[in-house]
Design a protein that fits this description.
The complex is a heterodimer of chains A (about 200) and B (about 190). Chain A has a domain of about 130 residues: Rossmann fold (3-Layer(aba) Sandwich). Chain A has a six-stranded mixed beta sheet, sandwiched between helices. With about 200 residues, chain A is an alpha/beta fold. Chain A has six helices and nine strands. In chain A, about 40% of the residues are buried. Chain A is globular, with a radius of gyration of 17 Å. With about 190 residues, chain B is mainly α. Chain B has one domain: MetI-like (MetI-like fold, Orthogonal Bundle), CATH 1.10.3720. In chain B, helix 3 packs parallel to helix 8. The longest helix of chain B has 29 residues. The mean pLDDT of chain B is about 85. Chains A and B meet through strand 5, helix 2 and helix 3 of A and helix 5 and helix 6 of B.
Chain lengths: ~200, ~190
């Protein structure tokens, strides 16, 4: 459960967002600079705002520019209490490697594995699939969708095909407003921005 | 020993502070204090009439270690703070949100990867230092003399061959860690 009634200002643009979300995966979309990342930071109390935010704890957050700590994959995992990995995990064979040497997709998986080990009831993910290939993107999307069965998951993305694949409610940031729309409506509104 | 202690203090300090930027300028400035002034402070602290004179540490290895520690610590702290600042804002927030109770542990893990480098740089600061070592330890041969103070002593006596030999040893000691660091970092690349 997540409820937010907030007002915040970014680069002289004023935003007012009123939301009430139950368990499930939700996308946050909109053009660059529309306030998507700032909205996540508002929810987390990392950006000044007026209003109220209620989120079920524990919280999980993967930021836009996630980088592992300068240590081995194993040490990065242990920090979050992860001692065992499923044999199918792409990180299994790289446990002793420096986490900085992982590919973009592997780093994203590492971040996701770390945060999901905390079993958050509210999971906020910011553009984790931005630079990933299609198979890695789909794998992460499916992982988040599965996780959304028992938590509120917000995924910021720029990828329209993610919206087409997942067909989940989307919080659309357009023209200084934010609206929660069904997937089809959100897609139509995004197409209108091209005209 | 002084270097190891300075590294411990530097790591803990940089891990605990919440806004490393505001601390960095201060510790950078302190790092450039002339060593002879540090030696003078230690001398005054441990001299018989000084506030710590009752310890009777002056001209002992203990006073020498204190002086070297005071020389190394600001540099270790500023280098650790610099490394901490290199952590992107997003990652600071990642740790703050996900691991609020393990923030210090996470920062220490982040700093650990750079400790060897910081250690060598800090060690370099105290290795060839003469002023603080002489004032605090007295440069007593076989007791509190360091290679740097011995080179100065032998030169003053006109024993140039000995001074040059010790200079070569000092040079090797200062260069070998840098070479080891270079080789290992190339291997990691």
């Amino acid at each position: 459960m997540l409820s937010a009634d907030v007002r915040f200002t970014v680069a002289k643009k004023h935003f007012a967002v009123n939301l009430e979300l139950t368990e499930g995966l939700y996308l946050i979309m909109g053009p660059n600079g529309a306030g998507k990342t700032t909205f996540l930071r508002v929810l987390l109390g990392l950006f000044p705002y007026e209003g109220t935010v209620h989120m079920e704890k524990p919280l999980g957050y993967i930021p836009q520019h996630y980088q592992p700590l300068n240590a081995s994959v194993e040490d990065n995992l242990k920090l979050f209490g992860v001692t065992e990995l499923p044999s199918s995990s792409p990180l299994q064979s790289k446990r002793r490697l420096s986490a900085m040497k992982l590919s973009g997709g592997e780093k994203a998986m590492l971040g996701l594995t770390q945060v999901m080990a905390l079993q958050p009831k509210t999971l906020l993910v910011d553009e984790i699939t931005a630079h990933l290939d299609q198979p890695s993107t789909i794998m992460i999307e499916n992982t988040l969708k599965d996780y959304g069965r028992h938590a509120v998951v917000l995924l910021v993305t720029h990828q329209w095909d993610t919206l087409l694949r997942l067909k989940v409610p989307t919080l659309l940031f357009l023209n200084n407003t934010a609206q929660l729309l069904p997937a089809e409506d959100a897609y139509s509104r995004l197409l209108e921005t091209l005209r | 020993m002084a270097c190891a202690l300075a590294l411990v203090v530097g790591t803990l300090y940089a891990s605990f502070v919440r806004s490393p930027w505001s601390h960095l300028s201060f510790w950078r400035a302190i790092s450039s204090i002339p060593p002879v002034l540090v030696g003078l402070v230690v001398y005054l602290l441990f001299s018989r009439k000084g506030p710590l004179g009752f310890l009777r540490w002056l001209f002992t290895p203990k006073a020498l270690v204190v002086a070297q520690f005071l020389l190394a610590m600001p540099m270790a702290i500023s280098l650790c703070l610099q490394q901490r600042i290199n952590l992107p804002r997003d990652m600071e927030e990642f740790i703050l949100v996900n691991l609020p109770s393990k923030r210090v542990k996470a920062m220490m893990l982040h700093l650990r990867g750079s400790l060897v480098n910081i250690g060598f740089l800090t060690w370099g600061r105290i290795l060839g230092e003469v002023g603080a070592a002489t004032l605090s330890g007295g440069a007593i041969v076989g007791y509190t003399a360091t290679l740097a103070t011995e080179i100065m002593y032998r030169t003053n006596l006109g024993q140039f061959a000995n001074a040059v030999a010790m200079g070569v040893v000092l040079l090797l000691i200062s260069l070998i860690p840098s070479m080891v660091l270079e080789v290992t970092s190339r291997a990691q690349r």
